[in-house]
Amino acid sequence: MQRDLSPVERLDPHTAVNTTxxxxxxxxxxxxxxIAANARDYLNVGVVETNRAGQRRYWLGVVAWSTIxxxxxxxxxxxxxxxxxxxxWVDGELELTPVSGGRQALGANEPIFAPPQPAxxxxxxxxxPAELERLAREPPQFxxxxxxxxxPARYESWQVGRQSMKAFREATGVGSPxx
Length: 179
Hints:
Helix content: 10-25%
Number of strands: 10
Oligomer: single chain
Order of helices and strands: EEEEEEEEHEEH
Number of domains: 1
């Protein structure tokens, strides 16, 4: 049975912003064998279109979560807070800096691309038309979270398909000459 990968449309009742959401985010994983067997941190990565009174903008959401309960370890975050992010392909990388205000900058009050865990951290990145087109052509092979004063945390493709972005692209007209 084939899943419906049509984008999800959501109207925020508080901001009146209409959001078109990629049906399934791409999921990237980072193995942490030093902590436990099969321990992983994850990133849900996806694209949304916001429509605020006819003004359309595109955003990349990065939601960090983990299968690891770090609550017993003092000073350990639930998962890494996404900050500057690098998306990588064989032919290059794209570096993005998060917008201030998080999902509220989009006009969204409810979580988007929420993981199966109740504890998560997220960041949102405004996309230029060229950046959006790059993501629409092919999902990144890896995502790296740059951490100030520390080594970047690199996440590899784990559950990354093209169909959800293809359906998003068709529904929103991303890459079409006229919208």
